Amino acid sequence: MHRPILCLLLAGVLAAPTSIAAQRGRTTTRKPAPKPVPKTEPADVACPEQLGTGLKTKLLFCFVLAGREPSEGVIVRLPPHSQATVTFDLHNRHTYSEEEIRAGRGYARYTAVIGVLTMTGTLLGRGAVQTEFRNARDLYDRITGGAGPGGTKAVAPLGREQVSVEVPAGVDQISLLGELLESTTSFGREVATPGRPVAIVSNVQVSYLPAPVKKR
User: Fold this and answer.
1) Domain count, the chain
2) Residue 136 sits in a domain of what CATH number?
3) DSSP 175-201
4) Contact 167, 176 (CB under 8 A)
5) How confident is the model at residue 48 (pLDDT cuts 50, 70, 90)?
6) pLDDT of the residue at 37
7) Is there a domain that residue 52 lies in?
8) Domain range spanning residue 205?
9) How far is the C-alpha of 132 from the C-alpha of 129, rounded, in Å?
10) 137 pLDDT band (50/70/90 cuts)?
């Protein structure tokens, strides 16, 4: 064998272990798993008493009734989740009257508080809304399907407070139930009694991470 060729072969043999060792010593950096992104969607809501659909917002408005049993409230059904947050808009309930405004008796003031409970009665949170009414511009929306101007109802949502409540895993239903109402109108002072509307709720949404699929 020619000497130059022999030298080249020996150099290759000597270099091979170094190359293999270098490859073995090389580390690969794994990319972290992407964080799960919560799903947000309209919640499945069962209203004990509906007010109707908003003329402007096109949302469904629900009365929140005063009571003690979660089954008497606005029921929100949740998909299976490892964590979830329910949000909704809370409004006061106002009966609009042009005659009262023209007579100088249009002013009204409302404070409403509702509870968010599990179906076994565990309190998860509360929502409150306080508003004043002086004229039609104060109304949040008008409700279709009535005999008023433009086919609207006299009862309308007033003000808006967004409420957010975290719901533990394993809780598939919650209840929105009226706790407190204080109102001052031309008819005098009113407080909540069982079965009567305390507030109005709309735009109920649920943001959640789906529960992991159980392996058989």
Assistant:
1) 1
2) 2.60.120
3) EEEEEEEEEEETTEEEE--TTSEEEEE
4) no
5) very high
6) 85
7) yes
8) 39-210
9) 10
10) very high
